[in-house]
Amino acid sequence: MQKKLIAELIGTFILYPEIKEALREAKELLNKDDGTGSQVEQLNRRLFSISESWNSILTSRASWRTMSIEKLNFSYWDMAIGHTEEYMLKYEEDRMDVEGITYRIDTLNLFISEYEKYFESCLKSNTEISKDVNNKFFAVVESLIGAELTLVKMVENGENYDTNLLYNRKDRPNSETINDVNETNTDFEDIMEYTFHKGCIYNGWWNEVNENNVLLIETPFRFGLKHGVEKRFHENGTLKMEILYFNDKSVEILSEFDEDGKILTSTDKISEIEEEKNPNIYNSKEEGDELFLKNKDILNVFSGFTDIQRGNTKISVFISAVWQLINADGKITEEESAKFLVFAKNVSGQYLGSTDDKDDPVIAELLNDADKMIEVIKSYPKEELNSFWNTLFSFALVDNDFSVEEANFIGSIAGAVYENLSDDEVRGWMTDQINMQKDSGSKVSESFKNNLNNPITAKKSPPKQPKKKPRKYKIYIFLILLLLIFGACYLFFLNKVDNFKSLILPTIERNELVDKDAEKNKWESKFRKDYPRFQSPIHLLVPKVSSVPKWSLHVACL
Fold first, then answer.
1. Residue 480, Cβ neighbours under 10 Å: how many?
2. Which of 21, 146, 270, 462 is deepest in the core (most CB within 10 A)?
3. Rounded distance, CA 360 to CA 354, Å?
4. What pLDDT is attached to residue 351?
5. Which residue from 455, 429, 425, 440 is spatially nearest to 395, judged by alpha carbons?
6. Confidence at 117, pLDDT banded by 50, 70, 90
7. SS3 state at 241
8. Is the model's pLDDT at 173 over the cut of 70?
9. Which of 140, 192, 199 is closest to 173 using CA atoms?
10. In the predicted model, is pLDDT for residue 467 greater than 60?
């Protein structure tokens, strides 16, 4: 549909070049620095001109970023991974492909180019860059990193894309090459994990040299992050190693050489890294981080969570599942209410940290996502998972009425957790669990017993009444019958027409012949009456026209 719309627009521009020219002039006017309004206002107008909807989304992400960075101590990588998780989930559900993610990358780069125009203007006018603009810019950059990481993972899953394109360099503001003698340059500053140079995000080549002006390290930066191939050199100036960085994460040591330029073996490489013990090889700014390649596959629900957050999340999901269960049938009995109060009190005592940790807004946000709650349940150890199921079934049976809604709720969770089980196997598993609960004296309602033989209505969310799909095949049958009836009527009509012609036309022709014979007899009788002397047939008396002159015929008639 989008391709068709684009084609129509292109066709419009070809047919109406004046429209194309008007749009071009309007865009130039919009992007023109006409001196009206501040530089930030002009930036906002240009961002709005790219896409109103995308601009709103990125502004919303910037607001969330402020709270996440300041209150939750999230890193830029945590923010980027969040976008990757979202994209990969869509990819696994066939709602995202390489074309879709590259479209997002292209769109994000359009926004980045407008921010860089603002940075360039501030550098030229020696104007301080707005902190709010920086925050919005970083929100776009982190979205871009998340999309680029998604492409890397898609390629690992067999998709076709040249990941070298992710390292292509282009002209950006503040992109000069700077030689830093033994890292003594004080114009560099790390702000929110991004490297700035003289108050602006750094996009150039940083070269560390010694006091003899010998190049030791050559590092490419993009958006204040190491991105691309970093080269390190021995004191004699020969190449020591090449390291590939992806947005400040070390991906791979591409090559290593000794002082004589000889390529080191894999065994020598390991010893060389251990001898250097330089944390920058593993991570540019966060000590103790592992290689990016070892971590990039850990895209799970707990990405960026602390140990306290992980433990409290498991407890919160447990309580939330029980609460949803007793509400599944739309009513809470006295038995369910009393048991839940005791259960919640006991489980709440297992929360870690302070009251603020218990009321963590990140956990509260996670509880709004059914898919993420399922992932948390999947992370339970075997004993905890068994306790989880026993608790759910005991609550379902506490009021001696295991309703259909409660059964479907438990079945939906079980079907999502045990994805390899069929619906029949899930029902069999539930029957076994119910039998285990019989010793407690709980009773199962007849409605549920009857429902055990019916399919479970949902797997990952509470069941909804299925909508009846229209039976299209009935419509098709009706149309076919209508066509057959019409065709039969048409053929019958043609047959009747033919019969009509066979009956009517001979009669008309016969009547015409009779009339002609009557006319002939009439005139022949009149002729004989008027000319009695001519009693012989007329054709014997009148000579042939070819043998008689015209004037002789005229005389004879007289």
1. 10
2. 146
3. 10
4. 79
5. 440
6. very high
7. strand
8. yes
9. 199
10. no
What string of H, E and C letters represents the secondary structure of 443-503? Answer: CCCHHHHHHCCCCCCCCCCCCCCCCCCCCHHHHHHHHHHHHHHHHHHHHHHHHHHHHHHHH
DSSP 380-423: S-HHHHHHHHHHHHHHHHTTS---HHHHHHHHHHHHHHSTTS-H
| CA Rg value for the chain | 44
- In sequence order, the 6+-apart residues with CB closer than 8 A to the CB of 427 are 411, 452, 453, 456
The residue among 477 and 138 whose pLDDT is bigger is: 138
Return the beta strands (E) in 315-365 as ranges: none
Percent of the chain with pLDDT over 90: 26
Q: How far apart are CA 79 and CA 66, in angstroms?
A: 11
Quote the Cα angle for 388-390-391, to 5°. 65
Q: Which residue has the tokens 């048409």?
A: 490
Evaluated on CA atoms 99, 47, 88, 243, the torsion sign reads positive
> In the numeric block, which tokens belong to residue 20?
């194309």
Convert 355-368 to b/e letters by CB count within 10 Å (16 or more is b): eeeeebebbeebbe
Distance CA 318, CA 387 (A): 10
